[in-house]
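Note to self: the last two entries modelled the partners one at a time, which told us nothing about the interface. This time every component goes in together.
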Amino acid sequence: ADGLQAAAAVKGLAFGSAVPITRFRQDRRWRSLAERECGILVCENAMKFSSVVPREGVFDSVAADETLRFARANGQRMRGHCLIWHEGLPPWAEAILASGSASRAETLMRQWIGAMARRYRGTIEAWDVVNEIVVPADHRPGGLRATPWLAALGPGYVDLAFQMLKDEDPGASAVYNENDCEQKADWIDERRSAILRLLEGMLKRGVPINRFGIQAHLTSNLPFDETTLRKFLREIAGMGLAIEITELDIDDRAFPADVAARDRGVADLARRFLETVFDEPAVLNVLAWDLYDPDSWLSIYPARRRPDGLPQRGLPFDAEYRRKPLWHAMHAAF
Ligand code: XIL
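The predicted structure of the combined assembly is written out below.
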């Protein structure tokens, strides 16, 4: 095995990826890539609320279970993504959250978290309990994001979700997973402070949280500043929390169309980011948000699309399954 996991393991770290279910089911070459490169997997969508419970009373974990069986057969660990998020909510659950009844909302949360935690107890090592909960970067100041969960249950929804996971699967690590806290922007200090204040409050209240997840959807649109990221990581580690890099990819919109130049830009940004995060001993692992360029959500999401219409090249393998400069940068950083 000469994949990224082997390189990560030498440093006591792990490397893994999100699993896009259609690719996983249809493409043997992709599966052998995932076997060789990954020590830890996460479902890209298959464990989200709207995937598992698309209609009230339906519980469809077929795709999630298939992924889990694959991971176990290959000796790979698995993360769970994600329990409480403002996206990926099925319409029937949104209706309950909008009904004005806090007790119905709390029952909904308990049933959903309970069902997932019980089903995957002993197999999911860490759950993203809450995902993207602070106010989006461009809507300052910091504080909790306006979501259906916040509207239904008030700010206590965050603590409640962590407590519910703890009640059902005390052995799983509980993660607060967040985006837009990696690079330099005029809003970054405010955003990082909001995150740190939230974590401090939770710890003071005795909320059972173990880890902070940094999504790391890096972007060519923003500069990178090692010093302040290093400080942010130190502050989180200083609270006794472990850190995971949960969704690494690079939006290459601002890099040139030329493939070689673009791949260099992508690899260079990732290298600087990874070198910085690996200096922090609290960091446990890095997961890419897919392995193979044709699968990247960055090429599909309207807000992420390149103005020239070219597909994004933000993942370690190209459309021919070849290792890209990004792969080599990751390998060298481990
Ligand atoms: C994205 C998936 O990649 C897409 O396939 C899906 O349509 C929407 O969600 N942050 C997250 C992930 O936490 O769950 C998102 O995944 C990407 C941004």
